């Protein structure tokens, strides 16, 4: 984004313009000594932003919100939300700003959003800042999610601010520049409904339809169609989380997007050993957002969205409730279909010559094998690709019940699994927790080389390459119970 490039990239303020009641104009805190730590050059180019410019002093200042390009209208977004089941009527962007929207080279309207840019009117008792470690976590995990085909916000850059931030000690501050199709959340609708401003609620829904689900505009009931679209998107998203062994960790309604993109990678992690009760968040003491609970909590969050949208769905509340309940009732079927289809693909059974009953049987049995002992989830499915080629040993030695595995594998192999298909969906490389921590610790000390090596692996996750052997392996002995923190 040289002077010429800058003129071809126009920021818009559509959210701020159309939904002023949800947008507080604000400025980012001045970063005393900003330093670019990592830049997603491919994403930048797709947005029409010149990576060379973004590496310049002015470009780095843009990435922390201290230089505003033409058309940028930085605002803090207002929203409400249920946090661990408790309702908060006003949350909002306490440490973030929406700079505005840009149209990428493919014609998509995308948000450019900053995280850690300083206190806003929604900051409450927080300092509005972020530190290097959690921002690098969001960068690497979100880009890994994108690489395996899971809808997600994207990470454009992490910039160290040059300011120390107080957490458990003094840590270097940072800002994450994030990209999304939209930052609208279930909590956005909850806030609009709580204001009892039906015009605002309608404009919010119309904004969501126009940006995200234009087909809903021509449906007999556009707002019910919008709700149905979000239900479908979230059912598919959470199924993909489960198939990848991903635990979000903080599925509050303000962290569920209307677009169906994964957002806010705070206390998140991937499973090492398969464990349905896995919890990685330091604040989830009850296990509310455990791995196996994620589909249940997604449905719960969608019920809160339905409650917020009832006046739009029908003027008769009883009719509105009945219509919303019917749509929400389809969530479990959609989730089950997506998860089962994904498991069939992971097991190489997507060919039409495999009956649903046969596939369901081997799926149920392999889940039982995973539950039986501490089996590395990602590596097990990757090794099954080798088993499909005739080498059962790597997968077999991972399980406790050898006789059970032998009986299962015989039935599975009789279905002629497609090893190539399996290798295309079962990643060799994920952001393994010990490797993430290694990269974050080094990054906090100013060494981003481990981060870049990890990114090299996880952004091309399906192709095994020489020199990346340690990125396939599980945690070392003594790594212990993994706990993550939200970073505030």
Major beta-sheet overview = 6 strands, antiparallel
Number of helices: 19
Report the average pLDDT across residues: 96
What oligomeric state do these chains adopt?
A: single chain
Compute the gyration radius: what is it? 23 Å
Helical/strand content category: alpha+beta
Count every beta strand, where a strand is a DSSP E run of 2 or more residues: 12
Distance between the termini: 32 Å
Helix percentage range = 40-55%
Uncertain runs are 1-7
- Assess the beta-strand content as a share of residues: 5-15%
Taken together, the total number of domains comes to 2
Q: Choose one word for the global shape.
A: globular
Molecular structure report:
The protein has 19 helices and 12 strands. A hairpin with a 5-residue loop joins strand 6 (96-103) and strand 7. The protein is globular, with a radius of gyration of 23 Å. The protein is α+β, with helices and mostly antiparallel strands and 488 residues long. Helix 6 (132-147) packs across helix 18 (433-444).
